[in-house]
Design a protein that fits this description.
The protein is α+β, with helices and mostly antiparallel strands and about 150 residues long. Helix content is about 20%, strand content about 30%. A 6-stranded mixed sheet has the order 1-4-7-8-9-10, with helices on both faces.
Length: about 150
């Protein structure tokens, strides 16, 4: 799914009316090390996220509701290191479109800096957007993996 199309789906679901917005290219400051950050492919953030500016283009993790990563050649980072980092930053929901393994993983509600095992969705299924995001939206696994509508 192109990230633009994902944004449009969130718009149709009423993301702005729910008090959030979607962004691309915005850095999430990670509290694990000074200067440590991640740049998610797509994120849903509080509408006033700019008030949580840390430095440069980095924003505090408490304004992020959902982080989306679409795997590419560095797929291992998305499936391992970022899971740990986002959990430690208390990101409520992390969705990975894992093109290498043909599935979508959803991690939710970290406790003590760790996510429980992810929900896994295969082709032919739809992924419900996790509750902390504030809108009701189902996204096709095939669309997330292939970029088609």
């Amino acid at each position: 799914m192109s990230l633009t199309k994902l944004g449009r789906a969130f718009d149709r679901a009423g993301i702005v009316e729910a008090g959030y917005e979607h962004v691309q290219g915005v850095s999430l400051w990670l509290p694990t090390l000074p200067g440590d950050f991640a740049i998610p492919d797509f994120a849903v953030v509080d509408e006033d996220f700019r008030d949580a500016h840390v430095t440069k283009n980095y924003y505090a993790p408490n304004v992020f509701r959902l982080v989306v990563e679409v795997t590419s050649s560095n797929w291992s980072d998305d499936l391992h290191a970022k899971v740990e980092c986002y959990a430690q930053a208390c990101i409520p929901a992390y969705l990975i479109a894992d093109r290498k393994h043909g599935e979508v993983l959803v991690y939710q509600n970290p406790v003590d800096g760790k996510y429980d095992a992810p929900q896994r969705f295969k082709r032919g299924q739809s992924v419900p957007v996790p509750e902390p995001v504030g809108v009701t939206l189902d996204i096709s696994v095939d669309t997330l993996l292939d970029g088609d509508d």
